[in-house]
Amino acid sequence: MHTLAFRLGSEGIEGVFEHHTGLLDQAHLEELLLRFAEGSLTNENVFGHHGHGALIYSDQPLPMDHEDYNLVVTGPRRSVLQTSPLKPYFAAPYGDMMIAGCFGLLRATADVIPELREPILAGLAGKNAAVAPWELEA
């Protein structure tokens, strides 16, 4: 029952924070994520609210105005961010967190095989519930 967030930049991992999921509601989690992205989150911000802490290597702001999404969310309590204005991308749209990596590979396939792009993206978005995205044919 922990929330674990990684800040990824051009050089790789730029920070991490961990908190107890049961102590976070949507508003507080969004506040932490926004401060994390802007580079102003401190260990005290997390630890002082009974979380495990934060470590950030960069205080340079990360843009949070991407057209598609601003953060990737997995886990059994991902619904906490279901209505978030931060435009989360739910990496395992069929709900099985154990295969989130598989969905990532499908998403990458959509980028490199143009004729499969639209059906894969529709499947990952849940727009074609009758056909799972791994059952598509080229």
Offer a few descriptive terms.
138 residues, alpha+beta, 3-stranded antiparallel beta sheet, two-stranded parallel ribbon, 4 helices, 30% helix, globular
What's the quick description here?
The chain has 138 residues and is α+β, with helices and mostly antiparallel strands. It has helices at residues 26-38, 43-47, 100-112, 114-124; strands spanning 2-9, 12-20, 53-56, 71-73, 88-90.
Report what the structure shows.
The protein is α+β, with helices and mostly antiparallel strands and 138 residues long. Helices cover 30% and strands 20% of the residues. It has four helices and five strands. The strands form two sheets. Strands 1-2-3 form a three-stranded antiparallel sheet. A two-stranded parallel sheet has the order 4-5. α3 runs antiparallel to α4 (114-124).
| Poorly predicted sequence stretches spanning 5 or more consecutive residues | none
Describe the strand arrangement of the main beta sheet, using strand numbers: 1-2-3
Overall form: globular
Radius of gyration (CA) equals 17 Å
Helix content estimate: 25-40%
Number of helices: 4
Mean pLDDT equals: 87
In total, the number of strands is 5
Distance between the termini: 40 Å
- Largest sheet, described in full? 3 strands, antiparallel
Backbone structural class = alpha+beta
